[in-house]
Amino acid sequence: QVQLVESGGGVVQPGRSLRLSCAASGFTFSSYAMHWVRQAPGKGLEWVALIWHDGSNKNYADSVKGRFTISRDDSKSTLYLQMNSLRAEDTAVYYCARCTSYYDSSVDYWGQGTLVTVSS
Amino acid sequence: DMQMTQSPPSVSASVGDRVIITCRASRPIYTWLAWYHQKPGQAPKLLIYSASRLQTGVPSRFSGSGSGTDFTLTITSLQPEDLGTYYCQQSNSFPITFGQGTRLEIK
After folding, report:
1. What is the pLDDT of residues A57-90, one digit of tens each?
2. Are A120 and A14 spatial neighbours (Cβ–Cβ below 8 Å)?
3. For residue B5, which residues of chain A lie inside 8 Å, CB to CB?
């Protein structure tokens, strides 16, 4: 069965960096585009970034553009999110998520999430 | 950016009721609309994609309709496990955006 397991969250000071990882299993990782979606405490869902199945294209929310980088290692079936210059407003649960299909960027599988807290 | 507006913000209904949640896009999005259900403390779960396609394993009491700018999620015969928050999401254009959510309570 499809599994997405995030790791790398924690408490970090403003201005510092953090890298999240998402280990995928149960499907052909290289065939799917992948998202990062976040949810601040008590708030709604916010899309963060998308990387195409072949890594040829990446899209970002304006709120993270220039600070966050999405990447993938298909040999390890792993998705990454490099987060630099972190701000208090980046505090959230970060979900790794799989695109439903090549044509549809909805999300059919979600990880359990990893909490990132940006605080001094 | 594409704005997605859900209504109502919250709804309280009884087991067996029919519940309708609407989502309006600020510009036409064809049928690039998905609906998710999130229970407290859990990750969201896909219910409907492409506006009206039921995700595998989702009960048939859930249905979606609409195209262009106006969409609806209908839950017929509400069950206790349907409590939580429902989100719409557009994937017609970047940045991908979600509605603000509709909180569903069971009376």
Report:
1. 999 999 999 999 999 999 999 999 999 999 999 9
2. yes
3. none
